[in-house]
Structures are given as structure tokens and as C-alpha cells.
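B., you asked whether I could sanity-check this one before it goes into the benchmark set. Here's the sequence:
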Amino acid sequence: MTDTTTNHRPRRLPAALRQWNIAVGALILGIVVLAAILAPWIAPYDPFKMASGPRLTGPTAAHWFGTDELGRDLFSRVLLGARLSLGIGFAAVAVGLLFGVTFGMIIAFCPERVKALLLRIVDVVYSFPDTLLALALVAFMGPGVENATIAIAISLIPFYARVTYGLAAVERAKPYVEAAQIAQAAPARIMRIQVLPNILQSLIVIGSIGFSSAILSAAGLSFLGLGVQPPSPEWGSILASGRNYISRAPWILIFPGLAICLTVLSFNLIGDGIRDLTDPKSRRRRS
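And here's what the prediction gave me:
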């Protein structure tokens, strides 16, 4: 007679889900992403339609987040704004990661003199805050969604390049890379096949940090009138339109501001959780 007691052991959740910060961050981000995807179908009103309700009306059963200064439904605009904010963030981080990681890896494998010169250039650009650099670029290129996305992506490149260089430089000093160089393997192959997989987990963490920075930069540019242009709803532009009514209609600022805070918090929680999950020191502290 076989022993079936082992078959009744409770299954443990995956390690990622046992991290409370990953679970909470993923839940919040999942709700925001789902709202952005389903916005055209779940928005109760046309976010561009004026006089959907009375002007500057507080939250009611008909208008959950109230209405703005033109009588537009704020709930519908915040929902559609999630599409623009997340879209700008994803596009900017993708471009920033692509160029930043590539540039950082190249610097790590350059000759010493060239490496020193390139690092100084990266450090000079990196010394400027992301939002300030993006603001200067948009002021030069002109306002708009595309220009704002390009400017934010460029502002993220020095951060990703500097971090990638540090990670790749540590890996380059390890015996397996030295052995590949002795075997006369091409530097591009060493970067792609051997170094990149070993720093990928760290890149995921800094990528999540970049999402937070990109969303904040996009909101900041739109708030200043250099990002998404009216009447397109974006969280920063909604905040900008409501700043003149902060005492009379604070809900115009509260709800898009809360959406920005929760989205940034979700990315930070996920990044911290992945860092704790992949860091041996953090695992020893938890055990």
C-alpha cells in the first residue's frame, strides 16, 4: 500500500509571489495596465466631450471622479490618461535601455584611454537631473508626445549606461571572461553570450526604476505644457488644467496625482522585490 501523505502537502507559492512587495506592486500595476487597455470600453463618457456634466462638480454617482472646468468626466480622462502615461514610460524605457545598455557594455570593453574619455562624457551628462535634461531637450525639439518620449529616453541613457558599465566591468574581471578573451572570442560575442545574461537580473531592477522616472518626467513635462498637448488627457496635463482650481475643485488634482503615485509606487515595489529576491545577502537576512 503506497503512502499518499506526500501528495497532500500544500504547494508553496513561487518565490516571486512570496515577496510581499512584488505581489503588491504587481497587483497595483496590473490594475493600472488593465484600466489602460480597457479604457475605451469602460470609460462611462467620452473623455474629450465637453459638458458631459456640470462644470467643476465633485464626485457623484454619475461622475465618480467629478468633472473638470469644461464639464468633462474626470474618471474617463484619468482612465485614458493611463494609456498615454504608460505608453510614454514603456517607449522611453525601452529606447533608453537599448542604447544605455549597449553603450555601457561597449565602454566596459574599450581600451583604457577611450574608456576614460567616454566615462567622463557619461558622467557629465549624468550629473544633470533626468527631468531637467528632458526639459532642455523638449524645449529644443518642441512640445508633443513624440518629442517628449524621445527626450525622456535620451535623459535615461546616461543612467543605464553608467550602471551597465559598472556591472559589466565587474563581470569582465572574472575568470570566465578572461578565458574567453584568451580563446580570442570576439568582444561582441563575449558581451552578448557571457556578460549580458549574468547582469540581466540587475538590469531588470534598474529598468523598473527607470519606469518610475519616465512616468514622473512625462507628467512633469505635460504639467509644464511641453509634453502631451490639450485636449489629450494625460495625468500631468490634467494636473496642469486643475491647478487654477485647487481650492475650488481639488479632485481635479487628487485623482490624477493619486494615479501617478500608485503607478510609481508599484514599479518601485516590484524593483525592490526583485532586488531582494536576487540578492544573496537579502536572502540570508530573510532566512
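One thing to flag: The two ends are 37 Å apart (CA to CA). Otherwise nothing jumped out at me.
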